[in-house]
Amino acid sequence: MKISIFGLGYVGVVCCACFSKDKHKVIGVDVDKIKVDLVNQGKSTIIEQGLEEQINESVENKLLTATKNYKEAVLNSDISFVCVGTPSLSNGSINLGYIYEVVKQIAEVIKDKDTFHTIVIRSTVKVGTLKACQEIIEDISGKTHDVDFGVVSNPEFLREGTAMFDFVNPPYTVVGTNSKISEAVMSDLYSSIDAPIHYIKPEEAEMIKYANNNFHAMKITFANEIGNICKENNVDGHVVMDIVSKDTKLNLSPYYLKPGFAFGGSCLPKDVRGLTQIAKNLDLKTPLLSSLLKSNFYQIERGLDLIYNTGKKKVGFLGFAFKSGTDDLRESPIVDVIETLIGKGYDLKVYDSNVHLSSLLGKNKDYINSHIPHIYKLLKQDVQEVIDNSDVIVIGNGAKEFAKIVPTISKEKIVIDFVRVDKEKTSKDNYIGICW
Q: Which residue ranges does the record assign to the UDP-glucose/GDP-mannose dehydrogenase C-terminal domain (predicted)?
């Protein structure tokens, strides 16, 4: 393929080297003459193992050149990668000025092109950037998206020091586009890389890089805070975290990484409080660990706001144990929601087959009688009774029976789902998902 790559900084120059290594004909574009000259001399603009050798080889094989002339680059390529910087502004938001400037340049050129052109945003950008780029291109070029051109969000996952390796050995490739033509182009381009390609919405692709990097930052901070507590207790923090990392069923897995409602139960809240108190007693600051319960409480508030915003007072809850398959009501966040609504005069009805059964057997009876007798009075044996007598239905846990019930609920009623019992549904019409 013929590829133009705008921006010869870290991401751009690595893309130049790796795409040309794969026998694509690449033109690097930059406003900085020094960077352009370096590439044309077979040299790298950054220090990265193996990069300069590949650039030199690609230049010698006439697979890689660099230029300041963006018109020449676009006219002689079928795909343009935008790899320019998105630096932080003083308020912390990102500066998209360089992105839009390049996109305008590309739009000016494709106005006179007869062939389809794909524009790929490789830089880290906020949600909605690709849509804005599409509109800019259509406005300037007069061309139509997915007819004359296509835009793609294709975030990179390169680590400094191992960027060359990471390019050809990614965990996956993300392609976010609404253009079927560009989707096919990207499939062909990445066909030599042994990694799954995820075709998703552009907005989802734009969010993934932020989610990844913030997750990495959180893991580093978490390990540091645990390490600090370990050290003050004469414990080797590396041993502790090494063992934590060996659990790929729960710790390093998708299990807990599903957006939804607040955590609860007999373990997590108690142990978060316990560890933060240990840190306080050692005069250690744990900003991340100390924020967990605050963030958890915010998710409860968010759930309440979704209910308040309906303007309805008759609310039915399907499931109020802290998770499906259990009758455990200890520190259930749904209980907090229900108690708050009772205090505000809402007309509530509750259904949970596991809680009802355990109360009859006496397993949960003492807790119910001593802690939530006012909620137990709201518990109904018949799920349909709860649905028929409520204007708002709240799905409180992921019991399998609720997934079958949701499609049968009248469109006149509002369904608020805290757990996503149907993985295919997103907020639309009378259905509201808390995080989707």
A: 316-423
Q: In this predicted model, what pLDDT tens digit does every residue of 67-116 receive, in sequence order?
A: 999 999 999 999 999 999 999 999 999 999 999 999 999 999 999 999 99
Backbone angles phi, psi at 391, to 5 degrees: -95, -25
Q: CB neighbours of 338 closer than 8 A, spacing ≥ 6?
A: 317, 320, 348, 350, 375, 378
212 vs 72: CA distance, rounded Å: 35
What does the alpha-carbon distance between residue 289 and residue 221 come to, in Å, rounded to a whole number? Answer: 9
Using only C-alpha atoms, what is the Rg of the chain?
27
- Indicate the residue type of 356: H
Q: Is the CB of residue 382 less than 8 Å from the CB of residue 353?
A: no
Give the residues across from 434 on adjacent strands: none
Give the N- to C-terminal CA distance of the chain in Å, as an integer: 37
Residues found in the chain:
436
Q: What is the pLDDT of residue 329?
A: 79
Which residues are part of the catalytic machinery?
Answer: 267
Residue 289 has pLDDT above 80, yes or no: yes
Cβ-based neighbours of 178, under 8 Å, separated by 6 or more: 145, 146, 201, 202
What is the rounded distance in angstroms from the CA atom of residue 389 to the CA atom of residue 371?
Answer: 26
- Closest Cα to residue 44, out of 36, 28, 55, 34? 55
